Amino acid sequence: MLVKDVMSAQIVTVSPNDTAQSAARxxxxxxxxxxxxxxxxxxxxxxxxxxRDIVVxxxxxxxxTSMAIAEFMTVxxxxxxxxxxxxxVAARMRELGVRRLVVVNDDRRVVGIVSLVDxxxxxxxxxxxx
Length: 130
Known about the structure:
Elements: H1 20-30, E1 34-38, E2 45-50, H2 51-59, E3 74-75, E4 79-81, H3 86-96, E5 100-104, E6 110-115
């Protein structure tokens, strides 16, 4: 199975200058747990934020929800290609300790996000009974 078969193709992005509060509101409205951070007018993805980032890096440290996303985002997020095999991507995510990857196409344009929960668990091969 390929990443493009299981990814979320709904792309909702934020700007590095947006606030933690506006990002949290957007996550609530769109029912997503992660947002790629895009440079406005350029289209380049420079980071990613998750709902956990907002809780831990902003609220947990007592910062204001008006804090700019650029101050707590993960810079240069890991990506995968829409044509990658899901089992290989799942293994890579576990190795990296992440639950989501930004998905790009062959032109390196963002086409979605894949979450570890989107990828079906591999079923062990059953042995033939004698």
